[in-house]
Specification:
The complex is a heterodimer of chains A (254) and B (46). By secondary structure, chain A is an alpha+beta fold. Chain A contains 9 helices and 7 strands, in the order αααααβαβαββαβββα. Chain B has 46 residues and is mainly alpha-helical. The chains are: A alpha+beta (254), B mainly alpha (46). Chains A and B meet through helix 1, helix 2 and helix 5 of A and helix 1 and helix 2 of B.
Chain lengths: 254, 46
């Protein structure tokens, strides 16, 4: 088979792969943002449109064609901030993400839990979010970028009350301290006890929108809590905190 | 901590466990879109 023939045969495969890559990254980008629900609606409409088109439903096909023509402008206006952020971040992400080895995760979690224990003993409040599969990029952008190795001293320094970055959350991404002073969304859950302050509300809010593992240290009650997928596990010891985080990340226990 | 390289097997496992539904849905959408656009191109003889 000559080269032009091979290319002719592979052209649709290459085109579909490129389309797949673009659609997948668009979905990843919108995951965890407020635009997610809207995007889901658009995808349903798009599938319905293609179905009506294929089945020759002229009226519905015509209606949806007109709707899409108008909605292009509406989408550009509504998603203007997201589109701007997306273009700015283009090319920064790896094709299928990167993965940390078990030993790396083990080391990072130990350091974080040790730092949490120290902060709790010193009556210093803290909020630490560990990125899992869903990107925390939107929240990282609200804080100050650090990009440093995880260390007990650095985490404690960041949360020292007179530090400029002690307000807000610390984000751990790909095993590195990515940013501090980040703003997380507050939960709207009315059932949450009044003893929990803004820090716990922010942790729950973030856990409702992403799959991040969030550690909260309360300065008043000196306790450590773990928040994951909208659930709060309070009054944990350093060992319990480490064991639960490992469980979530699915690391083998010793 | 020294930076360790991820093995190929770990990367392959990660490929299938990191947002598998997103990957599947986006592949289906990509195929549908490709066939739709090709149909339109043939129909209007672009």
């Amino acid at each position: 088979m000559s080269f032009p023939n091979i290319f002719h045969f592979w052209k649709p495969v290459i085109e579909i792969t490129i389309l797949w890559f673009v659609i997948y990254h668009m979905m990843l980008f919108f995951e965890g943002t407020r635009a997610k629900q809207v995007l889901r609606g658009i995808v349903i409409l798009l599938v319905a449109f293609l179905l009506f088109h294929k089945l020759d439903f002229e009226i519905l096909d015509w209606l949806l064609t007109k709707l899409f023509a108008i909605s292009v402008i509406a989408i550009l206006i509504i998603f203007h901030p997201e589109i701007r952020q997306g273009l700015a971040r283009l090319g920064r992400r790896h094709l299928f993400g990167t993965v940390l080895r078990q030993e790396e995760w083990d080391y990072i979690l130990r350091v974080i839990c040790k730092a949490a224990e120290n902060l709790s003993k010193e009556k210093i409040g803290a909020l630490i979010a560990i990125e899992k599969d869903e990107p925390l990029s939107n929240y990282i952008e609200s804080g100050v970028l650090i990009d440093a190795r995880v260390s007990v001293d650095l985490i404690e320094t960041i949360f020292t009350p007179k530090s400029l970055l002690h307000d807000g959350g610390l984000v751990i991404q790909q095993g590195r301290i990515c940013a501090a002073g980040c703003l997380f969304p507050l939960t709207q859950n009315q059932e949450l006890s009044r003893i929990f302050g803004t820090r716990h509300r922010a942790a729950l809010g973030l856990s409702e929108e992403t799959d991040a593992i969030i550690i909260v240290i309360s300065e008043e009650r000196q306790d450590m809590s773990l928040v994951y997928r909208g659930r709060l596990y309070k009054d944990l010891s350093q060992e319990e905190l480490l064991s639960r985080t490992k469980e979530i990340i699915k690391l083998k226990k010793e | 901590m020294p930076k360790q390289k991820t093995s190929i097997s770990e990367r392959i496992v990660h490929l299938f466990t990191y947002h598998p539904w997103f990957k599947l849905i986006s592949l289906i959408l990509a195929v549908i879109l490709w066939f739709y656009v090709r149909g339109e191109i043939i129909k209007y003889n672009f």
